[in-house]
Amino acid sequence: MEEKPEFKEVQRIPLKLNLAISLLVGAFSIIYWPSILYATAIFSLLYLIKMETRVGNGKLKIKFFPFHLNFTEAKISDTEQVEKTEFGYLTYGGIGIRWTLNTKAYLTKPGKGIKLTREQSKNLVIGSERPGELKNELESII
């Protein structure tokens, strides 16, 4: 049986952002009618997206549903530093699971999160509505 995590957070894409993207795609329905179907599909996909972050048993686990059906365990043994960070839409190239040359980011919206600076692998950024709590939990297991 899995133990209860010390930290658990569930985030979704904000409804206003979801509607804005869907309406933008749907606006092209005047020119190309199947774009109504595309807008509906995009709205549905964005509505389903849910990021769950857990810290417990000395592990950091992330699930970005529907792209991850199971939790992905992030390697934190080589973490040098954990710090609070702030970011915008374009800091890491948007929302979702994002990669840059030296960073992997899990983001559902712009704002706050934590950044793990690591020696052997890419840095890791995780968006969070409670970055202080997440930082404290991660520091306690590093």
Provide an overview of this structure.
- With about 140 residues, the protein is an alpha+beta fold.
- The protein has one domain (about 5-140).
- About 25% of the residues lie in helices and about 40% in strands.
- The strands form two sheets. It has a five-stranded mixed beta sheet, with helices on one face.
- The mean pLDDT is about 85.
Compose a concise summary of this entry.
This protein has one domain (7-141). The chain has helices spanning 15-26, 35-48, 131-141, and strands at residues 7-12, 50-56, 59-65, 72-74, 79-87, 96-99, 103-107, 111-118, 123-127.
* Distance between the ends: 24 Å
Number of domains: 1
- What portion of residues belong to β-strands? 35-45%
Report the uncertain regions: none
Proportion in helices: 25-40%
Q: How would you describe the oligomerization state of the chains in this entry?
A: single chain
Could you give the count of β-strands?
A: 9
Q: For the CA atoms, what is the radius of gyration?
A: 17 Å
Characteristic terms for this protein:
alpha+beta, five-stranded mixed beta sheet, 9 strands, 3 helices, 26% helix, 142 residues, four-stranded antiparallel beta sheet
Q: Could you outline the blueprint of secondary structure elements for this entry?
A:
Elements: E1 7-12, H1 15-26, H2 35-48, E2 50-56, E3 59-65, E4 72-74, E5 79-87, E6 96-99, E7 103-107, E8 111-118, E9 123-127, H3 131-141
Parallel strand pairs: 7-9
Antiparallel strand pairs: 1-2, 2-3, 3-4, 5-8, 6-7, 8-9
